[in-house]
Design goal:
Number of strands: 0
Largest sheet: none
Shape: elongated
Structural class: mainly alpha
Distance between the termini: 22 Å
Length: 131
């Protein structure tokens, strides 16, 4: 496969994985709908979503770099989305004094920034572990 075609295929696979990840996160949130909250100007939700997108893309970048075949990138990308979901659930679990979802729905920027940091930070660890 030529480099231009391969780049396009990796691009399409990456966009699909990001969209699947965002759909799954949308289903996971019960207190608000992601894009509606962003449309209403909720910056905390926007930052949290941005962290998830960047996090998934970081994992995909490592997967593309370390994979010999596109299907390997697909598998690592899906696995990365699953690990990002687990990270979000653990983040919510370990913040026992408040609900991350409640705080994001209330546009708590501090929680939005922290959520973004968790997604990006763990994506770097997940990505670095791809070999």
């Amino acid at each position: 496969m030529g480099p231009f075609v391969a780049t396009f295929v990796y691009f399409v696979v990456s966009v699909v994985i990001v969209l699947i990840g965002l759909f799954i996160f949308e289903v996971m949130t019960q207190k608000y709908k992601d894009l509606e909250a962003v449309k209403e100007g909720n910056l905390a939700v926007a930052m949290s979503i941005s962290g998830k997108i960047i996090g998934i893309c970081i994992i995909l970048a490592f997967a593309i770099y370390h994979s010999n075949e596109i299907y390997e990138t697909l598998i690592w990308g899906i696995y990365g989305v699953v690990l990002q979901m687990i990270a979000y659930l653990l983040f919510d679990l370990f913040t026992r004094k408040f609900s991350v979802e409640d705080q994001l729905s209330k546009n708590n920027m501090a929680v939005g920034v922290l959520s973004m940091g968790v997604s990006i930070g763990l994506a770097l660890v997940i990505g670095a572990s791809i070999t």
